[in-house]
Specification:
Length: about 140
């Protein structure tokens, strides 16, 4: 009986602390990425997803096609599988899959699909124009 209680407690603890597949720091693999438009073309980059008490913080540093360093960050508030801020919103549709939108002044400007491989080593972000059909880039990131 004690073994059964211990198993239940450990299982509950493991479920409550299940890791977010996206959390961590990722480095852009330019050779594996596909850039279809100049605005989405990068020579290097790093992204970090950090869990917060009410959501997640995303920070990035990118080097654009002209060699200029671009940095940014945002924090989202998450309820169940949906996360939102003034600039972005997404819904987690599977443990390693997120469908999202970039928002400016309340208008969706771009859409994206974020996935992590089952082994947790690679993150792919496919960016689309707001129509969700015109692909602008496929960014492949590797866990650092």
């Amino acid at each position: 009986m004690k073994l059964l209680i211990l198993y239940v407690l450990l299982s509950a603890s493991a479920l409550s602390k299940s890791p977010d597949a996206f959390a961590g720091t990722w480095r852009l693999n330019v050779k594996k990425s596909i850039f279809k438009v100049k605005d989405d073309t990068y020579k290097a980059g790093e992204r970090t997803y950090t869990l917060t008490p009410d959501g997640e913080r995303v920070q990035w540093t990118l080097v654009d096609s002209d060699g200029k360093e671009v940095t940014g960050e945002y924090a989202v508030h998450c309820v169940h599988s949906e996360c939102r801020s003034d600039a972005v919103r997404w819904k987690q549709t599977a443990p390693r899959t997120v469908h999202g939108e970039l928002v400016e002044n309340g208008v969706v400007t771009r859409r994206y699909l974020r996935t992590v491989t089952p082994d947790g080593r690679s993150l792919t972000i496919k960016f689309y124009k707001s129509d969700a059909t015109t692909l602008t880039s496929v960014q492949v990131w590797e866990r650092r």
